[in-house]
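User: Hey, my collaborator sent me this sequence without any context and asked if I could get a structure. I don't really work with proteins. Can you help?
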Amino acid sequence: MTNVEIQGDLPPGISCNQLKIMAELIMVSEAPGLNFELGLLCTDSKEMRRLNRLYRGVDSNTDVLSFEGERLSLEGSETRFCDIIIDTNQVFAQKGKNTYREEFWQVLIHALLHLVGYDHIRTSDKMKMEDAEDNYRKQIPEGLD
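Assistant: No problem. I've predicted the 3D structure and written it out in structure-token form, which is a compact way to encode the shape of the chain:
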């Protein structure tokens, strides 16, 4: 089971329900048997720069930060507490030919995959992550409010 708490404004055309469905799809597919409590904060560039400096020691903007926090095991079930922070200004600025909505989904899916163990430091890992991102982008829920 995946619970998602959202703070801040989602891009037009993305509902809380759609976001929760996508998070559940990825978490159940990639980490079966685990429960997730996710917090999503959509913020601006000033706050993201502050948080990037605070948590990573990098004094610059970034589109997304993801954090895996505590793990709680109860009655044979593990729950992971995780947070994702997305700079919606940066997402809009970097969208290129994508729509704002498409770029937001790309960044969110990327962050969710990091939380289930994907990385992109080595070329082979990067290719696996990109394949997973492509797969999940094709499964973005449409028209759910």
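In plain terms: The helical segments are 16-30, 45-56, 88-93, 100-115, 123-137. You can pass these tokens on to your collaborator as they are.
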